[in-house]
Amino acid sequence: MGSLPPSLELPSPKISEKSLLELFKSQQNHLNYFFQHLSLPQTLQFTQTLLQCRGTIFFTGVGKSGFVANKISQTLISLGIKSGFLNPVDALHGDIGILSDCDVLVLFSKSGNTEELLKVVPCARAKGAFLVSVTSVEGNALSNVCDMNVHLPVERELCPFDLAPVTSTAIQMVFGDTVAIAMMGARNLTKEQYAANHPAGRIGKSLIFKVRDVMKKKEELPVCGEGELIMDQLVELTSKGCGCLLVIDEAHHLIGTFTDGDLRRTLKASGEAIFNLTVGQMCNRNPRTIGPDAMAVEAMQKMESPPSPVQFLPVINNQNVLIGIVTLHGLVSAGL
């Protein structure tokens, strides 16, 4: 198919920076309205109810509210709190069987009159679950049939027709995730416990991985003695992928480091005399080092610290014995 004739081409949609800024300011005002009118006693009662739940905290909702409910459930799970999302349609076709009298079911609905949720209520009540509606319209049907209701005040939707749920869902998300963090604090969750729930992500790796988990060791180390000639160690300098030589004594104590940058500077300054220079004469005898039990993220911070960044850190034990090397490339490859 060919393109439209010039006379029939549709104008490209455009929006000005001023209009965009006005929209963001309007949304900010709508969110401020929510914060100013939210009932703290209601929110505290809701939070305490979730904290005291002996079973699982289930969330449900339809449409956009369903997506928000699912996301809040995932936030709680990531904090180590037993939670789950219950699809209201699937609940009526068998999934309601997961509920017990130890559970709490939180129903998100802006209007509070969502038909699918109203059908779930008697089934969930028959299972003995405690029911909490989270709604934004006063006097709605859902709040009248649940054990507790939390009102989320919404001034209006940002949508010019006041129809598309873009402000109400933002408020639901802010409310749910803030309550989740309040529960996190009340349960005294530690960084280590949080990291244990995120082992594959950057968050978990930064809190779990230690230097010993990411360092090169043994045959991977570019080592040499201080009496070795620089030119005899070029293969060792370049073949291990570390960009340096680790200079050690016979007992494997670290003496210093010699980098490919040191090689270039020595060659420029010494010329042909480099053929007679030993690594020990030109190495840095005061390199930055790190221990094997330090956190890997600490190693990265140490590499990037003043006066100038470095690409590696020798890893030594308490007796200054070389046991490994951690490189910036290795840390990045590990997901840090």
From TrEMBL:
Superkingdom field: Eukaryota
UniProt keywords, alphabetically: CBS domain, Repeat
SUPFAM superfamilies in the cross-refs: SIS domain
GO biological process: carbohydrate derivative metabolic process; carbohydrate metabolic process
Keyword Ligase on entry: no
Annotated site residue numbers, Catalytically relevant: K64, E116, E157, H198
Statement: the UniProt record of this protein carries the keyword DNA repair: no
Domain SIS: 46-189
Single GO MF descriptor: isomerase activity
PROSITE patterns (alphabetical): CBS, SIS
Family the entry assigns: Belongs to the SIS family. GutQ/KpsF subfamily.
Protein name: SIS domain-containing protein
Organism for this UniProt entry: Acer yangbiense
